[in-house]
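Continuing the batch. This is chain 6 of the set; chains 1 through 5 are on the previous pages. Same settings as before, nothing changed between runs. Recording input and output for traceability.
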Amino acid sequence: MKIMAKPLPTTVVGSYPAVKAKGFKSLLDPEKEALETAVSDQIEAGIDIISTGQVRGDMISTIISRLPGISGQEVKGLIKPASGPITVSDTKYAVSKHGKVKAMFAGPSTIAHALKIKTPMYRDRDEIIPDITSALVREAGYLQETGITILQIDEPILSTGIANMNVAYESIRSIAGSLRVPTCLHVCGNIGSIIDVLLKMPVDIIDLEFANNPDNLETISKNEIRDKIIGYGVVDSADTNIDPVKTIISRIEKGVDLFGPEKLLIDPDCGLRMHERSVAFGKLKNMTEAAETVRIQL
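Output for chain 6:
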C-alpha cells in the first residue's frame, strides 16, 4: 500500500511541546494556542502527515479521564466507552489546516498497565483490556470520520515484556478491523524479543525507533516485513540536541538500502513534547530536509 504518491513521506509520532496561552485566551481554552502552534510548526517544518501535537496532556490521561468506571488511575467499576468523542475536536482543527493528518491514541495494553484495579469486577489487567478496547473502537470511528489519513495506536508497553501479547494482538485487531483508514502501531524500545508477534500484528504500518535504538534495524532486517510499511524513526527523540541533517540522511539511506524507499514512512523515534519548542521544530525541519535530499537522489 502507499500512504502518499511520493517516496519517503514524513510524519510525526505524536506529541509536540505545548505552548502556554496567556491572557483572556487562556481562560477560554488553555490548550488552543498550543494546538495551533503545534499544527503550524509542523506545516512550516514541511511535515507531510501532521498530528495535533497531543497538547492536552499525556496520551493515557487524555483517554482515561473520560471513561466511566475509571477514577484517576484506578478502575472502580465497569469500564464503558466515553459519552462522546474525546480527541475529535483537535483532530478536526488539524484536518482543516492540512490535507493529511495522523490521529493517535494510547493502546489498550498500555492504558491497562497504567491502571490499578480497585473493583472485584475484574481479576487482572487482561480482563479490563477488552472493555478499554471497546471504548477505543468507538473513538477510532469518530476520528475516521474527520478525514484522517492514518490512525496510530501507541503501545510502548509491548517492548517491555510484561504485556500479554495474545491479548494485545486481539485488541489491536479489533481496533484496526473496525476502520477503513490505514492503521499504525507505534512501539518504543528494543523490539528484539517481540519481533515475530509484532510483524504479525494486523496493522498496515509498524512504527519503531531506530535512531536511538539501532539494534532494531538489524532485528527487523532479518525478518520478512511482507506488505507492511515501516514507520522509520530517524530523529533521536531522547537527545536534547537537534540531529544534524547529515546524520539523518545517513539513517534514511540505511533504511532505503534495506527496505526500499516505498516501504518507509519517515518520522522521529517518539514524541517530542519534552523538548523546547525550538529544538522540536529544528528536529522536524532537519528531518524533512534530509528526506528531501535522499528523495532527490533516488
